[in-house]
Design brief:
- The chain is mainly alpha-helical.
- Helices cover 28% and strands 4% of the residues.
- The protein contains two helices and two strands, in the order E-E-H-H.
Length: 89
């Protein structure tokens, strides 16, 4: 069952991220600006995305795989930098 807020489904509504301090102060302006998206139903839920950039989110189904791959990559990268550095003796 979809979560609802004020009769609206959060899973079936278009979401916009506002990277601004106190965005609620300009709610009326944002509602007007983004009203054109009201009928859009094609926005993919991040949780269901297969784009690797979202795998670092700990709630994503692929997160454990992402962590494992990055631990292996970090260990591999650290091994490359052993030694005396860039300077020759």
């Amino acid at each position: 069952m979809a979560h609802k807020t004020g009769g609206r489904s959060l899973y079936h509504s278009y979401k916009v991220v506002l990277n601004e301090k106190d965005p609620w102060r300009y709610n009326e302006e944002y509602e007007k600006e983004y009203a054109k998206y009201k009928s859009h139903r094609d926005q993919e839920v991040i949780r269901d995305s297969r784009d690797p950039k979202y795998f670092q989110n700990k709630y994503h189904p692929e997160h454990k795989k992402w962590v494992k791959e990055h631990k292996n990559k970090d260990m591999h990268d650290r091994g490359k930098h052993k030694g005396k550095g860039h300077y020759k003796n």
